[in-house]
User: Fold these one by one.
Assistant:
Number 1:
Amino acid sequence: MRLVIDTSALLSLEAGGVLEIAVEKLDFIISSRIKEELVGLSKNNDFEGNLAKNVLDYEIEVIEPSKRFDDGESEVAYLAKDIDDVEFIITDDIAAKDKIKKISGKEIRFSTMMVYALCLKGIKTFKEGWKIIV
Amino acid sequence: MQTEQLNIKLMPELSKELDLVAGILHIPKTDWVRNVLAHEIKKELEEHKSFVAVEYMKGKITKKELIGALGAKGAEDAEFVAKTTKKGFEDAKKLAKAMK
């Protein structure tokens, strides 16, 4: 199962300290625009910038969709629509939910799903998972 | 931009410290106060929204109370978060099985 993920969810998982293990355990895909957003953020010397720098160090597959968009959310939605075995789009950007759903026609899930899955797999304890989520 | 005036009285010590901060930053003290106020209001509102949304998810408040606290759009978002989180917890089982 492959998962299309956007910048907001990548940063949330990295902030929770679980992105590296999630990337090892699951196949994530990002679009070219998401990579560009991360590169842009990584230039800032602040909390988000440092998270973005770390995210760029992980091996995440980058796919350029057949149509480019100015914003990452629209582009991941289009990418997810293009790829048959992508069931979910992982985002924490609630404001973009309607746009993502309209373009992709696929289900949205939050990054909390990843944390819970890591707990179910026994990689994190439920206590650790709860701390990450809240 | 249309604005509304808010008059506040400060203790002399705090007023002096405000002058000092504004002087250090080279900005008018009203600008500094406006920025800090905007930031704090946004933060307070976000915390309030999160709290209300969690209470709704726990079933401790009704949808009517949710709408009353967050407005129609905020309530719609909170309901979306509640439903998507619930579905996510169900789908996490599938995801855990798919992990390498």
Number 2:
Amino acid sequence: MQDRIYAKLLIVKIKNLKKHPLPLRWNHWINFPLLTIMIVSGLAIYWTNSDYLLPGEWLDKIGLGGNLGLGMGWHFAFAILFIINGIFYSFFLIKTGHYRYLIPDRKSLREAGIVFLHDIKVWKKPLPEQIKYNAAQRITYSGIFLMGVAATLTGLAIYKPAQLNWLLAALGGYKAARIEHFIIMALFVGFFFVHIGQVIKTGWNNFRAMVTGLEVKPEVKDEQ
Amino acid sequence: MSNKLPPLEEIEIDSAEYKKSNRRSFVKAGFFGLMGVLGVGWIFKMENQRELPWLLRQVNNMSDSFWKANFSKDARVAEATPDGKPFRVNGDAGLEETVDEKKWRLKVEDPELPEALLLTIEQIRALPSTEMKFEFKCIEGWSQNVQCRGVQVSEFMKAFDVGQRSQTSLSGVVKTPYEYAALESINGGYYVSMDAKSLLHSQTLLCYEINGQPLTVENGAPLRLMTAVKYGVKNIKQLAHIKFSDSPPADYWAERGYQDELMF
């Protein structure tokens, strides 16, 4: 009897923020392997004619050389899943209302500057308040969303230049669309490394929230 | 504006329950991650259908059929001004080094014809010609604006009354094109499959002139296919044999892992 009372007293309540709704977590984690497959298969296609932008010889070293057929097969099949995942992501962003935390507002540009200065340890004062994402994250994640749209549009125009001739013309033609598609890929790769770096820097509580959805609420300290 | 946003919902959980639910989430994540890895491995190890994993070939074919069925009506590739440079020579599969135009014949087979047609290059040149300027797109990624002259395949089929099956109905004889044509080079070493919609497209020519000059042998003299709606690999050079049918014919590059339809 006594033990049970003590046990009850020992139970600690943990305050959590419901940070990432389940469907958005699914979208996030499905997108990661999909985008990886798109990039790897895309590079296998790029390899066969890489006389613009970056020379492609290095792709031989990572085993992507001479796989045009396989590259196209994977790329065009998994593009369908990539698009479906993007559509679901848009839908759930709206349905959960979380698009409001994602889309930058008027103050975001200035605040993103502060966040950046803070990250490179120039800004020493406390950061502006944030609910889910800080201003730099809002701009970056919204940009990533638009890059997904742009990757889809440029990709489709390259894939079906006759059926989508209007889209191809709007993008500046076939060669331009291929270069745009390639640049978007490079930006995705760049984002990946920055993102991983930031996630590691921010720590376990933040990362865990992307898996479990819950972030332990930081203790509010009374300052002065 | 951000001040007006509602704060994130809060939830209080007992520490024991919290640990349990975390563990559950991570076990689930691990499980689905593993399924994903196994799924990709499964596609890689899957039986190939003409050098492409079976599933990828099916999905790609379905996708191409979808685009052709729903979005191909009146779809044309944009006109493009030639760049004035010589037309790039890229492949030599199934090509002869020399060709005797006098001996050359285009053999046309149609299930309704008792015997194959054998046409001379003069007979083809005599048909009304069409000029086409477009961006020739190689499947490997390069492209080049080119101007070419020849007879539209649809015109050619009308002129020699080939490639269409006749069906007698109450309103008379109805002609419908065969689903496919098999196209072969002079020595048979290169062959492509063309579906009816691509073959009958107004931007698909039996071509004998590129950039104002008669075809060179390495660019496919005396006759080649030039189509704006397919990658270069379908633009067969030194064409000598057309066979219409309703079953998908062999295709040189599809046998080597490329998709069947390619582009249009």
